[in-house]
């Protein structure tokens, strides 16, 4: 079978995340990469705003790994949700917490923020950004929300829902990057990776002419 990868990796690349969704995004692009994660303190600082927090988390994740692999490019990412621009909604601690989170989102518009960091100590490059997407939910009642929680899909996701899964039924409208809501602003990441020649588009091999 022919290689149909969209991109190929030109420099060593590390994903500093155990997220299966982020792994899937990079795999679908055709990239070769290692997954190396680090345990960090994910407690917000006093008065820290959601955007500041998620960018700091992405940066710490990337730096904690890249300092051990200075010649590689490391990707760090962190996703949170906020309704009021100040309160951070992460992954639910349990089913009751998931219900409380989904009640806040039902019938309202919230922002999904992903901090993204790309760094390579050997090249003295450390880039970070925050991508924000607005998502509006239908006004689902408790019975519907509890039925969704019973599927267990919400329990490992920021904001207690997965737009790429069953949770898509909750979404009324979306304004911005859909991949960002899933956990990675792919368009922003690809632009950075191409700009720094970490990846490149794959050129399809020409078919040989029959004699």
Domain count, please report it. 1
The CATH C-level class name = Alpha Beta
Unreliable parts: none
Please work out how many helical segments DSSP would assign.
6
From the alpha carbons, calculate the radius of gyration and give it in angstroms.
Answer: 19 Å
End-to-end Cα distance, whole Å, is 22 Å
Question: What CATH architecture do you see?
Answer: Alpha-Beta Complex
Helix content: 25-40%
Which H/E pattern describes the elements? EEHEHEHEEHEHHE
Count the beta strands.
8
CATH topology group:
Maf protein
Average of per-residue pLDDT values: 94
What structural class do the secondary elements suggest?
alpha/beta
Please give a quick description of this structure.
The chain is an alpha/beta fold. The protein contains 6 helices and 8 strands; from the N terminus they run E-E-H-E-H-E-H-E-E-H-E-H-H-E. The strands form 2 sheets. A 6-stranded mixed sheet has the order 3-2-4-5-6-7.
Task: Provide a descriptive summary of the structure in words.
It is a single chain. The chain has 211 residues and is α/β, with parallel strands linked by helices. Helix content is 28%, strand content 24%. The strands form two sheets. A six-stranded mixed sheet has the order 3-2-4-5-6-7. Strand 5 (109-120) and strand 6 form a beta hairpin. The mean pLDDT is 94.
